[in-house]
């Protein structure tokens, strides 16, 4: 008990010391203004951005109404001239959540009408993340690594899973089991997001029935998504089946089946990747499986990345050093 308290104090202290290394901040672009044609022109977003610190792994949320607007990632030249003929990426469903996975300058514009030239454009500088948990010389005791969420949070915050991780959504030459293996140790809950990465025009993502999945008959589908990266928010519990309608892809192994549990979470999960193991019961041998479960890309289950608390703290700490 006393040891637990000490660890907690130590974690809080370390957290304050190295927070910029670990915290992932969600930035709602323009805050309550959202993603619109700003009344005073583009200065609204440059002012907003100047007050934020963007680090690799953070997310931007562009809040707009689907069908009435969009957001496109573009080059500096395209940003400067509001040329939206060939964006790098484009998100059409609002609110759009975009993970900043590269450092450097990023440019976003609306491709609707003259909205960009009227000021609906955002340029930001993203700094590199300081690396994962820099070998803490001050914490020799192993339990520190798993201490952050002991008994306080019975449910975890939504997780974004990148399907296949680095290999993305594809036919892999060496195996037809890739996505079954990828899904095997993961816990999917209502509210989580699947991201399917692929090269535009070379794949699609089709949600299908179990029988279509089993037989690889894709003549009828529940829905088909064509524009990468495809982001699917898991809205309903139960089994979900995904494949591609491109010829032979399904039978070559481009298929994913998952079980989604409801987020009210009192149902005992059959998965070994339990969300809140008691730290004291963890042997060093079992801990890696719980830390290896979350995807590398964006959200991690332990620190709930609520917008205000983390960003507020980081603003206080890191703005001055830039
Ligand atoms: C900048 O951030 C601080 C702290 O979060 C806030 O109080 C202030 O209003 C912000 N300034 C602008 C111009 O948004
Ligand atoms: C997006 O805008 C709507 C309507 O203004 C608002 O209700 C909602 O809270 C906003 N979402 C975010 C993430 O700011
Ligand atoms: C817009 O960008 C495209 C592709 O980069 C280019 O071909 C076109 O000339 C540009 N249009 C203008 C008006 O600069
Ligand atoms: C993040 O990386 C993935 C590929 O790993 C890419 O498809 C996606 O567009 C990237 N996001 C941004 C905002 O660049
Ligand atoms: C990013 O930072 C560089 C170097 O400080 C600066 O020259 C550039 O204007 C910045 N870009 C944006 C979009 O803020
Ligand atoms: C199959 O290939 C992918 C991509 O090259 C690689 O990441 C994965 O480890 C390979 N799997 C096996 C079982 O060899
Ligand atoms: C899943 O977890 C078990 C036990 O934690 C481990 O033995 C197995 O290798 C894991 N499988 C994959 C595909 O990671
Ligand atoms: C993706 O490819 C389709 C054709 O396959 C094309 O119409 C569309 O403009 C492309 N989108 C992007 C963002 O490149
Ligand atoms: C595939 O499914 C469709 C309707 O879902 C059905 O009409 C068709 O006969 C099926 N094809 C095969 C080869 O089973
Ligand atoms: C989902 O869970 C049920 C019950 O545990 C199991 O029978 C089924 O095979 C699972 N489906 C998938 C796609 O993992």
Automatic annotation (TrEMBL):
Keywords: Disulfide bond, Glycoprotein, Signal. The keyword Metal-binding does not apply. InterPro entries: Cupredoxin, Phytocyanin-like, Phytocyanin_dom. Residues 129-157, 262-322 are annotated as: Disordered. Residues 1-23 form the signal peptide. Residues 133-145 have a biased composition (Pro residues). Gene3D superfamilies: Cupredoxins - blue copper proteins. Residues 146-157, 262-310 have a biased composition (Low complexity). Residues 43-119, 169-254 form the Phytocyanin domain. Residues 313-322 have a biased composition (Basic residues). This is Phytocyanin domain-containing protein.
